[in-house]
Design a protein that fits this description.
Length: 281
């Protein structure tokens, strides 16, 4: 399958600080890939290099099959969308006018503005100046701007970090839809639930290195079989292993009418991250 992003032996240093150490990965067309890592692991640095906002210290980075620095060309820039913290919104203009400017720039019909505002749940704020919006609302305007032109490739740096769970869920649905329509998505997050909800593959980034890169399902099974918790009628909890001894215990509690609930303790991506790196997300 065609690779949209190809990264080989990528190194980035800031003075004597090594932010990325020999990073390799590819992103296939149509994929949603997530970089999951704690603060300082190198997520933003990766996105900035992939979008030609920062130059690599060493290594080969290709986007759409071409060296990444060519993305500075406006015609190529139109194929990508970027959400990072440096929003570049016009504070005194309304939400609608901010997006109208970009619609002109990208040759997009104004009717699309309504669609993206619905996706980010901001239709009520259409006529509000950006300076009157909360941090989370501004983040959503920036997201709306990034997807206005249905880019072939979308970069999202912590897209829902300032948002409440309901808005986050709604935005996740919108991003999945955009992906179904053909947009390849590269996102960073420190939220394992977000990585699971959106990503076909997830990279664990720690101290500037990719520790693992696989599907969320494969990653979860790497941390071993889930144990099983039984809640008994006397409100005590018993944990058993998913093997013959566990089956015998469960059957015993059931036969005696003592069992209230059975709960499988699936390992989370966060558990595996801690196992691998000794650090919480
Ligand atoms: N302009 C810079 N100058 C010096 N060091 C930098 C610069 N930008 C990033 N770093 C360092 O590089 C490392 C990776 O930073 P980066 O911002 O990529 O991490 P991150 O995973 O995005 O963190 P966060 O989740 O807090 O945004 C950190 O140690 C950071 O201090």
């Amino acid at each position: 399958m065609e690779n949209i992003i190809e990264v080989n032996s990528l190194v980035k240093s800031f003075g004597d600080k090594l932010a990325l150490k020999d990073v390799d990965f590819n992103v296939r067309k149509g994929e949603t890939i997530g970089f999951l890592g704690p603060s300082g692991s190198g997520k933003t640095t990766t996105i900035k290099i992939l979008t030609a906002q920062l130059a690599a210290t060493a290594g080969d980075v290709r986007v759409f099959g071409e060296p990444v620095h060519l993305l500075k060309d406006p015609a190529r820039m139109k194929k990508i969308g970027i959400l990072t913290d440096n929003s570049g919104l016009y504070d005194r203009l309304t939400v609608q006018d901010n997006l109208a400017l970009y619609a002109d720039l990208y040759d997009v019909g104004k009717e699309r503005i309504r669609n993206v505002l619905e996706m980010v749940s901001l239709t009520d704020e259409e006529r509000t100046p950006v300076k009157k919006l909360s941090k989370g609302m501004k983040q959503r305007v920036t997201l709306a701007r990034a997807i206005l032109h249905k880019p072939a490739l979308l970069f999202l740096d912590e897209p829902t970090s300032a948002l409440d769970p309901t808005t986050t869920k709604h935005i996740h649905e919108g991003l999945r839809e955009l992906n179904r329509e053909g947009t390849t998505i590269f996102l960073t997050t420190h939220d394992m639930n977000e990585a699971e909800a959106l990503c076909d593959r997830v990279a664990f980034l720690h101290d500037g290195e990719i520790k693992l890169l696989d599907t969320p399902q494969n990653l979860r099974t790497m941390s071993g079989s889930p144990s099983i918790s039984l809640l008994l009628k006397d409100k005590t909890t018993v944990t058993v292993e998913p093997d013959e001894s566990g089956a015998a215990a469960i059957s015993g509690y059931m036969a005696s009418g003592n069992l209230l609930t059975i709960h499988s303790n699936e390992p989370t991506l966060g558990d595996l991250f801690v196992q691998l790196t000794g650090r919480n997300l």
